[in-house]
Amino acid sequence: MGNLIWHEWSRYVSLTATVYTIWASFWGILYRKFFWDFVGGTLRAPGGLQPANNVAVFIDIIVKAPIVQILSMLLGFAIVALEYPAPFLKGTALYRSLVVRIVTLLLQAFLAILYYQGTNGAIWSLVAVIGYARAIALGETMEEAKENRGRGGKA
Amino acid sequence: MGENWFHREFLNPRRLVFNLFFYGVQLFLFAYGWYSQETNKKLAALNGLKWSVWTSRGAGLVLAFDGGMILVPMLRNIIRVVRPRLAWLFPADENIWFHRQVAYSMAFWAMVHTTAHYVNFFNVERTQVRAERALDIHYTQAGGITGHFMLLIMVLMYTTAHHKVRNQCFEAFWYTHHLAFFFMIGLYTHATGCFVRDSTNPDYIKTFPFYSTEHCLGYESWRFTIWPGIIYFGERIWREIRARRATRLSKVLVHPSGAMELRIVKPTFKYVAGQWLFIQVPDVSGWQWHPFTITSAPEDPYVSVHIRQVGDWTQALGERVGASPSVVAAMTQDAMKGKEKDDSLYGTRGNFVELDPARTTRPLPVVRIDGPYGAPAEDVFNVEVAVLVGAGIGVTPFASILKHIWYRQRKGNVGSLRRVEFFWVCRDAPSFGWFQSLLQEVEAAQADPNFLRINIYLTQKINEDMLWNIAVNDAGAEYDPLTLLRSRTMFGRPDWKSIYGRMRDAIETGQYLPGTNAQLKTRVGTYFCGPSVLAKAVKEACDATTTSNINFAFAKEHF
């Protein structure tokens, strides 16, 4: 009953997840924490959770320098530009590709799950991925916009 | 849209009052929540977290308010009861609009609250003000678990409630929105983890609410916010019980234009003209309730709805009752071409066909109806002049109202109502054949030629053949060739400003309402049902025409 156009719904989820992730990455830069530091970490008072030595590389790129958060934020802005879409992307083949969306969202989920604030953004990105995958499975496509032929003022 | 955001939100007095009140209350609650946390000596340890805990507590209190308010506009039965008494205070017909405003606020404050808590738990772990990890608070304690679940539910509910998705697939919206049940459970139990406490460990007890209020110092907001939830739940159960009362589909009539008329007998169903109901046909779908306007008058011995087969549910229903889309489509085509026009005696359009249940192999399906629910047109008898404006399919509520006025007229009991102006703006009148036959009846029954005036505006483009046809048939004929009414059809869009202007002049000179003193205040009520663009034009005309003695009021119906 009814005809849900999955990729249109996924777009709303994707935008929500991405805006959330951008906001989360901003706070992730201010309050830096590796989400998975509890694995093998020890709790010390005072001092908090001390991560295990074998995750030192993540501590380097998340706590010492917020590289993951910055990447996540940049990717987030890129996804918003793709989804909203930004004027220069509108009507391009990139904009009409559902596969590109799945790939970028998966990447976003991967980056977001690494830092403390990003978990919800990651989960919601995966929800959007499921929606887009369903859209592809159902054979949905984003149609090329009709050219406005015969509109006045243009030769 | 010529007006900007500022104009709309602040220069409209009603909207200004609403904004000041609604957002004022929220800001006040936020400030109060912040202040009461910051100054609470018992929570000194928690206050070590500084601004983030003050923010989360303030936003939490606003969210409690929003969580309580979100269900209030959905208490349809209660709104229907209180509406006539409180219509002056708040626009009861804008309940969905208010529901959305609360939802937007809720999303905003949820963002504030969640952001603050992410900082809180980060600092709890860092400073070890409590011996636990941020992960524990997020994913093992009641507050964290319910919070994350509520956020996920909000994502699903908000995205499927987008008007585009709702129009594409109402079911996706309808079913997903029932996650509200789990959302509400999450909201009421959000504080049971006893995060706000003055003791080292949560002080759980064996009896309800399973934590001691001596040491768990939350706002206990669930004590208030749970009531709308309980009332709403009760309303849903009541609707279910009411829907199960004896209901019988007595007749299915197929009108020449393709509309199905279901005549339903349900003795317990009481309604007034202009209201609508939900209908469910278990044979078609066991869960879906579809809204339809009631087209019978309360005086009729049955409740009728007119259904056009446009969506898949309505088509499935047509299939089920034996008026399959192909049959009806053929009839619609015929009606559009005017084939059935049988000018022999009275110039009436072809009659409706009653589907004979004995002929078909299956008996008529079981139907259940739920309602009625309110609409502004109930107030029609409180004004001197009623202007009824229906556009396109929006004309349906007026079927009931016109019938009802007709019944009241026969009894000589029309309240203060002196005149009725009925406007029907539509693209192609023939496709609403069933409505025309109703109009014919009402028009023919008029004793006072001035009481009811029917104005039909046809907005479709007319080709040359049709033009000649009209020109030839119209001249000197008693009935209008298109609608077969005495009233003439007009072409093009109505000019509302001049219509209302002329009406005002006529009232002022005393021609319009004979016997009315010009000193008396005259109320002209406009009741509109149709697309919002047209609504705006009519409303503007109403506002522009209002003078000190003549009040042009406007009411719009929503679907």
TrEMBL record, chain A:
InterPro entries (UniProt xref): DUF7727
Record-annotated membrane-spanning stretches: 12-30, 67-86, 98-116, 122-139
Domain DUF7727 positions: 1-140
Keyword presence, S-adenosyl-L-methionine: no
Protein name: DUF7727 domain-containing protein
Record flagged with keyword rRNA-binding: no
Keyword annotations of the record: Membrane, Transmembrane, Transmembrane helix
TrEMBL record, chain B:
Pfam families from the UniProt entry: FAD_binding_8, Ferric_reduct, NAD_binding_6
Domain named FAD-binding FR-type: residues: 236-379
Regions that span the bilayer: 16-35, 55-75, 139-160, 172-191
GO cellular component: NADPH oxidase complex
Annotated compartments: Membrane
Gene Ontology annotations of biological process type: defense response; monoatomic ion transport; superoxide anion generation
Gene Ontology MF terms in the entry: superoxide-generating NAD(P)H oxidase activity
Membrane protein topology class: Multi-pass membrane protein
Alphabetized UniProt keyword annotations: Electron transport, Ion transport, Membrane, Oxidoreductase, Transmembrane, Transmembrane helix, Transport
Cross-referenced CDD domains: NOX_Duox_like_FAD_NADP
PANTHER family: FAD-BINDING FR-TYPE DOMAIN-CONTAINING PROTEIN, NADPH OXIDASE
Protein's name according to its UniProt entry: FAD-binding FR-type domain-containing protein
Organism: Phanerochaete carnosa (strain HHB-10118-sp) (White-rot fungus)
